[in-house]
């Protein structure tokens, strides 16, 4: 079973570990800290039941609202916890949060080569909106923009 909790500062080192391994370029500790406890956003951590006793974090996601739109900033699952529904649970909860807050559209950017993430987003109804040329660094790559009407 997967349990979702709001991010807390003392759990940030684990989030940083997952982030550095999964996302390039990663955010700084300060940038992640800035997303904790915000009125206009969601910073969720996923604990798998087997790991929950130790507060071991399997994944996290960060979403921010602006007016009636939201942007999914980050979603990542620990390498050894993937393909067990953690990413889907996080994304589903983020979309539920958007519904509760009357968000009309959710947007995200994803590396063009990131098949796993693109499949996850499509499974939850996101559609391609366009491209941003050379949007990412380390390595340089186009972003695919995706959106979902809520
Ligand atoms: C993308 C990511 C968050 C998915 O997390 P996950 O916990 O493995 O995802 P789930 O097990 O919930 O899978 C949900 C769906 O996503 C898709 N998916 C996930 N991983 C996939 C893979 N490796 N290959 C193909 N499809 C995949 C499938 O559609 C899957 O549904 P299914 O199991 O019914 O086939 C994870 O691979 C990850 O952390 N990647 C690195 C970080 C990243 O790229 N984040 C996105 C940045 S925009």
From TrEMBL:
EC number: 2.3.1.266
Pfam families xrefs: Acetyltransf_1
Keyword ATP-binding: no
GO annotation, cellular component aspect: cytoplasm
CDD domains with a match to the protein in the record: NAT_SF
All copies of domain N-acetyltransferase, residue ranges: 2-150
Record localization: Cytoplasm
Major subcellular location class: cytoplasm
Catalytic activity, reaction form: N-terminal L-alanyl-[ribosomal protein bS18] + acetyl-CoA = N-terminal N(alpha)-acetyl-L-alanyl-[ribosomal protein bS18] + CoA + H(+)
Single GO MF descriptor: protein-N-terminal-alanine acetyltransferase activity
Keyword terms: Cytoplasm, Transferase
Entry similarity comment: Belongs to the acetyltransferase family. RimI subfamily.
Free-text function comment from the UniProt entry: Acetylates the N-terminal alanine of ribosomal protein bS18.
Protein name: [Ribosomal protein bS18]-alanine N-acetyltransferase
Species this protein is from: Sporobacter termitidis DSM 10068
